[in-house]
Structures are given as C-alpha cells and as structure tokens.
Amino acid sequence: MTHPMSDEARVIPLRPAPARPRTPEPEPAPREPLWRDLVGEVLRRERQAQERTLKDVADEARISLPYLSEIERGRKEASSEVLAAAAHALGLGLGDLLSLTHGELSRRTADRRRPATVSHRPYQGLCLAA
Predict the structure, then answer these.
(1) CA distances from 125 to 24, 80, 119, 120, 130 (A)
(2) Rounded to an integer, what is the distance from CA 112 to the centroid of its chain?
(3) What angle in degrees, to the nearest 10, is found between the helix axes of 80-89 and 65-72?
(4) Phi and psi angles of residue 20, each rounded to the nearest 5 degrees, phi first
C-alpha cells in the first residue's frame, strides 16, 4: 500500500519543549509627550479662547496659514522666531508660550514621576586637561 507523499517536510522533535510559566507581559511605559505637540495644543487653545481664526493669527504673525495649522497639529517643529511671532499675534510673549507649554508637560507627566533609585555620588575620577 502506497501513501501519498506531501511536499512539506515532517519534523519530529527530539524532546518536548519545556513548559514556560505564563507571566503577564509588563505594560510598556507611557510615551513622553513631544514638545511640538504640546506647543501646538497651547497655541490652538489660546487662539480658540480668543475666538480667532487660523487665517487671522497667521496673517498677523506673517506665517502661512498651512504652516501655522501644521504647527498647531504638532506636525512641524517651529523655530523660536516662528513661535515668537505666533505668540505675539496672540498677545503672548515667547516666555509666556513656553511657560504654558511647560505647565502642560508637567501636568501630563506628574503621575509618571518616580523618585530616583540611584543615589547621586560626586565623581571621584581623574580629569586631565592639556
């Protein structure tokens, strides 16, 4: 009696695989928010609080409307000059914008802060200078 042969190889393990205890996978650490996302959210929130349009703020800041929109959506890393122009168009200084953004970052990461587990010791090495 002939058995039909398949094209697949037949694998016979030499010994059974050891049973591994099932331990739950640790949850990945939450991702740090990106600065550009936070800056964009603060700009948008300030603009909407003043009930102003993107066009109005872009024109006053002398920034193209599509570029300001990309900044607000966190798609572009704006230069400090562009951020200052957008902030001034909203009646804010660059420091105000950065302070508001820092506050938002602090609020979002407050629950993730952990005390340092490694104590900081002064460097006891040797430094050579020429």
Answers:
(1) 42, 39, 17, 14, 17
(2) 14
(3) 100
(4) -105, 135
